[in-house]
Amino acid sequence: MNLEKYRHQHSDILKSIQVLRELSRLGIAEKAAEIAQCVISMSSVIKLHLSVEDRYLYPELQKSGNRRLASMGKQYQQEMQKIASAYIGFAAKWNEASKLARDPEGFRREANQVLKILFERIRKENRDFYPAIEHS
């Protein structure tokens, strides 16, 4: 199974997280418009990534006949539902410059929580999940 498109999307998401960190360091209220735009852009990539995983990756693992991978895929998919829900709520709350400017510390707090979980999940997929699929 070719996982290059998934890795590329992960790379794009990680770059967006880095951009959000850099913009936040420069001042959330001052960079509110750029931060909001980055959240919107990153959300598009994340939604596409989740959709492709749900429509193609996880079903392929279920059909693979490899019980270990099928189980792993099911576990990753279930875990991702909670992470995706948290991210979607975060993105809906912080996708407008005016909201960011009104509560920069609220954004910082939520971003630190939600984006850390997303970052760790991507690292786990890149380190454990994708290599397991490729070496099956």
Descriptive overview:
The chain has 136 residues and is mainly alpha-helical. The chain has one domain. It has helices at residues 4-26, 32-63, 67-93, 97-102, 104-134. Helix 1 runs antiparallel to helix 2 (32-63), helix 2 (32-63) packs antiparallel against helix 3 and helix 3 (67-93) packs antiparallel against helix 5. The longest helix is centred in the middle third of the chain and has 32 residues, at 32-63. The termini are close together.
Question: Notable features of this structure?
Answer:
single chain, 136 residues, mainly alpha, 5 helices, Hemerythrin-like, Hemerythrin-like domain-containing protein
Summarize the structure.
With 136 residues, the protein is mainly α.
* Average predicted confidence as pLDDT: 97
Helix content: over 70%
The rough form would be described as: elongated
The rounded distance between the terminal residues' Cα atoms is 9 Å
Beta strand count: 0
Biggest pleated sheet: none
The succession of helices and strands, N to C, reads: HHHHH
Q: Stretches where pLDDT falls below 50 for ≥5 residues?
A: none
Please state roughly what percent of the residues sit in beta strands, choosing from under 5%, 5-15%, 15-25%, 25-35%, 35-45% or over 45%. under 5%
The rounded Rg comes to: 16 Å
Overall number of domains? 1
Q: Helix count, per DSSP?
A: 5
State the secondary-structure class.
mainly alpha
InterPro entries: Hemerythrin-like (IPR012312)
Protein name: Hemerythrin-like domain-containing protein
Pfam family, one: Hemerythrin
Organism: Oxalicibacterium solurbis
